[in-house]
Automatic annotation (TrEMBL):
<dbReference type="InterPro" id="IPR015424">
    <property type="entry name" value="PyrdxlP-dep_Trfase"/>
</dbReference>
<dbReference type="GO" id="GO:0006520">
    <property type="term" value="P:amino acid metabolic process"/>
</dbReference>
<dbReference type="InterPro" id="IPR004839">
    <property type="entry name" value="Aminotransferase_I/II_large"/>
</dbReference>
<dbReference type="InterPro" id="IPR015421">
    <property type="entry name" value="PyrdxlP-dep_Trfase_major"/>
</dbReference>
<protein>
    <recommendedName>
        <fullName>Aminotransferase</fullName>
        <ecNumber>2.6.1.-</ecNumber>
    </recommendedName>
</protein>
<keyword id="KW-0032">Aminotransferase</keyword>
<dbReference type="GO" id="GO:0030170">
    <property type="term" value="F:pyridoxal phosphate binding"/>
</dbReference>
<keyword id="KW-0808">Transferase</keyword>
<feature type="domain" description="Aminotransferase class I/classII large">
    <location>
        <begin position="30"/>
        <end position="381"/>
    </location>
</feature>
<dbReference type="Pfam" id="PF00155">
    <property type="entry name" value="Aminotran_1_2"/>
</dbReference>
<dbReference type="InterPro" id="IPR004838">
    <property type="entry name" value="NHTrfase_class1_PyrdxlP-BS"/>
</dbReference>
<keyword id="KW-0663">Pyridoxal phosphate</keyword>
<comment type="similarity">
    <text>Belongs to the class-I pyridoxal-phosphate-dependent aminotransferase family.</text>
</comment>
<dbReference type="GO" id="GO:0008483">
    <property type="term" value="F:transaminase activity"/>
</dbReference>
<dbReference type="InterPro" id="IPR050596">
    <property type="entry name" value="AspAT/PAT-like"/>
</dbReference>
């Protein structure tokens, strides 16, 4: 029988590494997993407590397709609290994780054959979802000269029309951020050229600029210019498996997303939605910030030990919880490097080929969303293992 051409997207190499790491751990081996972009703590106590209350006697039936009104209102308040941006709850769409958000955003905004630009290296699901939907992906080679983020100059230099631009700040895998004035310039260029800006903001809240430093700017400031914001409870609130995300939409996409959401999934998981309101409480914010404080200690540890690791080329780790490093000096490509590191030292990292099909063979991604003890021991093992190469 026929298998669709659109389904032929590449798998994540990280999932193969993760499966191998889990198999070794199940066999009793000591494995330190720094390959998955997943906070080690899981959801906070306030979220778990609310979920237990709901399971004991709450209404867990269908919600509205765009999400439960109390959660949409809480998300709107979040934008006033964090960004001083006024968001109408009617423009908030709750989604099944940010992945569901990207699918709905791309379906609502783009047609088959539309050209959508994004940074390379970058999160592979963007281009894979777009390709499966019949869009043409235009990769922008973003290296140290642009701090691994797209620029207006790159957009100006493109041949042919453009229908969309996907940006991420902080970005996966690099952790780099788009400065506020740069985001404003990108949004202005997109508005002037009729290009839909889609902003991935799932790592907002996880930044390391120091006391008084500004966090990442939100594209919610540019809704009237047609921008779309995608966010999630997975990273800052450590709720990965709860599959809860959201979008903030420009007016022209609200009806389309509402109709698509109702047809695709009826509604996001009700338990996660009602518990998500608790995540947006003062107690929920406080618990999330404790995680960020721990990530900051892990980040400082890694940066201090870069000379021992011999990783001289790393992306600026402005935010998120990743270190993206060039390991080409080992003489191994990143897939081989990661496979041997797991096999010989019991440490799981992600090969850069997941994020960059051109230059990723030289790079690896290390996730430090773990305990300081685990990250420290992992560095010890990597340092010792590299001496054997």
């Amino acid at each position: 029988m026929k298998v669709s051409r659109r389904s032929q997207v590449p798998p994540f190499a990280v999932m193969e590494i993760l499966a191998a790491a889990n198999a070794r751990r199940a066999a009793g081996e000591s494995v330190l997993n720094l390959c998955a972009g997943e906070p080690a703590t899981g959801a906070s106590e306030v979220v778990r407590r609310r979920a237990a209350e709901l399971l004991a006697g709450g209404d867990l039936g269908y919600t509205e397709a765009m999400g439960a009104p109390p959660l949409r209102a809480a998300i709107a308040r979040h934008y006033a609290h964090w960004y001083d941006v006024d968001v109408d709850p009617a423009r908030v769409a709750v989604t099944t994780g940010s992945s569901g958000g990207f699918m709905l955003a791309f379906l609502a905004a783009f047609d088959v054959g539309d050209r959508v630009a994004l940074a390379r290296p970058g999160y592979p699901a963007y281009k894979n979802i777009l390709a499966a939907l019949g869009c043409e992906v235009v990769e922008l080679a973003c290296g140290p000269q642009t701090r691994y983020q797209p620029t207006v100059a790159q957009l100006e230099a493109l041949d042919g029309p453009l229908d969309g631009l996907v940006v991420a700040s902080p970005a996966n895998p690099t952790g780099t951020m788009i400065r506020e004035e740069e985001l404003a310039a990108l949004a202005s260029w997109c508005a002037a050229h009729g290009v839909r800006l889609v902003s991935d903001e799932i790592y907002h809240g996880i930044t390391y600029g120091g006391p008084g430093a500004a966090g990442p700017a939100t594209a919610a400031q540019y809704l009237d210019d047609g921008a779309v914001v995608v966010n999630s409870f997975s990273k800052y609130w450590a709720m990965t498996g709860w599959r809860l995300g959201w979008m903030v939409l420009p007016e022209d996409l609200v009806a389309a997303v509402d109709a698509l959401a109702g047809n695709v999934a009826l509604c996001p998981p009700a338990l996660a939605q009602h518990a998500g309101v608790a995540a947006l409480s003062p107690e929920g914010y406080a618990a999330a910030q404790e995680n960020v404080d721990r990530y900051a200690v892990c980040r400082d540890l890694l940066l201090a030990r870069l000379p021992e690791l011999g990783w001289s080329r790393v992306a600026p780790a402005d935010g998120a919880f990743y270190l993206y490093a060039d390991v080409s000096g080992s003489g191994l490509d990143s897939v081989t490097w990661c496979a041997r590191l797991l096999d010989e030292a019991g440490v799981a990292l992600t090969p850069g080929s997941d994020f960059d099909g051109v230059d990723g063979d030289a790079w690896v991604r290390l996730s430090f969303a773990s305990s300081v003890e685990v990250v420290g021991e992992a560095v010890d093992r990597v340092v010792a293992w590299q001496r054997t190469l």
